[in-house]
Amino acid sequence: MAIAGAIIGAAVGGWLNDRFGRRLTILLADFLFFAGSAFMATAPNPAALIMGRVFVGLGVGMASMTCPLYISETSPANIRGALVSTNSFLITGGQFLSYLINLAFTKAPGTWRWMLGIAGLPALLQFTLMLLLPESPRWLYRKGREAEAKSIIEKIYRPEEVEGEIMALKESVENEVIEIEAAQSIKLTELVKTKAIRRGLTAGVGLQVFQQFIGINTVMYYSPTIVQLAGFASNQTALLLSLATAGLNALGSIASIYFADRSGRKKLLIFSLSGVIVSLAVLSAVFQGTTTHSPPVSLVESNGFGGLMCEDYAAGRASATWDCTRCLKMQSCGFCSSSSNKLLPGACLISNTTAGNKCRAYGRQWYTRGCPSKNGWLALIGLALYIMFFSLGMGTVPWVVNSEIYPLRYRGICGGIAATSNWISNLVVSQSFLSLTQAIGIGWTFFIFGVVSILGLLFVIIYVPETKGMPIEDIEKRLEKRAIQIKFWGNKGRSSDPSNKA
């Protein structure tokens, strides 16, 4: 429900940005965050909890496309990539903190109410601080509030840069006025017919879709499950290891801040996707080996628990062929490992609290998702590499590119389209992940993500332009000249040769 709300929030966020400004849209998102958290913490029934999730989702959708846009429009070109990447780092840092908070509240009374309700505090803090910040100077200039825009630009840029920035902004707005006189309102046909917009949307939307379809949010949403699928049975162990993955995500985002304005957006994307492909290959191979070499089920071991033997296993007369993987495929079954060695034959029992507690009482490990494996640590290494490579480029650069690739007049609506595509893709992948793992196994699921990553790499090489250090107005000119953007080196921003078609 939160993701569904985010889709709506991102869709209306573009209109809100263009009509009321970036600052007011962020304030509205903060209000929705706070209201949603309050609804969830005090929910008397599931309907109220769902309503709170929708409110939070609406705020997430608005903020996801507005914050990078606001940062981009209030940043000098030479540090714009680093500052937008910082936004992504703080998101991943927030995810890390949320795991810590969840861990802290696991023993508290009213566990989940505290977990969900405390999210209102940072929303309240940001709302208060946002009241002290100015509106985007680019939005103000476009609305005819030139004096306000100029005073803000003077605070952002060095004195010798102010005049050039104002002239570039003035030229951009004057070009828009000419377009508006020719067409009184933005029409969807304009987005398709205008070369720069169409090519910018292709790159921007494509990056957002690939960001989700290579599987990152399945890893973040279901990392405790994935850790258990790798053979780590304990819920607490799974949560602690998930905390580590969230920390690696934050570390990768820090590296992205450093490299975004040094190596360039496109190079960073290519390096990131190349690492993701290798990591997914490792994950696919390890999980495939785990499912094909899982411990056998022993009839003697299963009988040792009296009436707790799984009915599906008891009814299957070909029980000698059963192993842990087949046991867990039956939704009603759980696997209790051998007391001497978890890789030896174990018991297939009813998947309930009684059987789980009895299994652990005998000093055994209780599995309901993944099976014991001697190579589980390889899966953790693959998972760690995947997160680090992803967060270095694909986690942050799509938002950087989408914050700077569209002309000012279209920035709100195009950013909204791109953010909406991101959240729709997020919903599709997150809702299908567990079903895929049940149907074809987690090894093949990661293999599919790997194939999509290869397609994403080819897409980046062909369609995504390098925007490092370029004033936003010059990016539009580059898109007008060339549809295929295979060249990704030698960009020098505003001082580059205007005839350069890269």
TrEMBL record:
Major localization class: membrane
Record's GO cellular component terms? membrane
The entry lists its GO molecular-function terms as: myo-inositol:proton symporter activity
PROSITE patterns the UniProt entry points to: MFS, SUGAR_TRANSPORT_2
Q: Which InterPro entries would you find in this protein's record?
A: MFS_dom (IPR020846), MFS_sugar_transport-like (IPR005828), MFS_trans_sf (IPR036259), Myo-inositol_Transporter (IPR050814), Sugar/inositol_transpt (IPR003663), Sugar_transporter_CS (IPR005829)
Q: How does it sit in the membrane?
A: Multi-pass membrane protein
In terms of PANTHER family, this protein maps to: INOSITOL TRANSPORTER 2-RELATED, PROTON MYO-INOSITOL COTRANSPORTER
Residue stretches making up the Major facilitator superfamily (MFS) profile domain: 1-468
Tell me where in or outside the cell this protein is found. Answer: Membrane
Is-annotated flag, keyword Lipid biosynthesis? no
Q: Which residues cross the membrane?
A: 24-44, 50-71, 83-105, 111-133, 201-223, 238-259, 268-287, 377-401, 413-434, 440-464
- Please report which protein family the annotation says this sequence is part of: Belongs to the major facilitator superfamily. Sugar transporter (TC 2.A.1.1) family.
State the protein's name.
Major facilitator superfamily (MFS) profile domain-containing protein
Pfam families in the cross-refs:
Sugar_tr
Answer yes or no on keyword Protein biosynthesis.
no
**Which NCBIfam families does the annotation name?**
SP
Which keywords are on file for this protein? Answer: Membrane, Transmembrane, Transmembrane helix, Transport
Q: What Gene3D superfamilies does this protein's entry cite?
A: MFS general substrate transporter like domains
Q: Which domain of life is it from?
A: Eukaryota
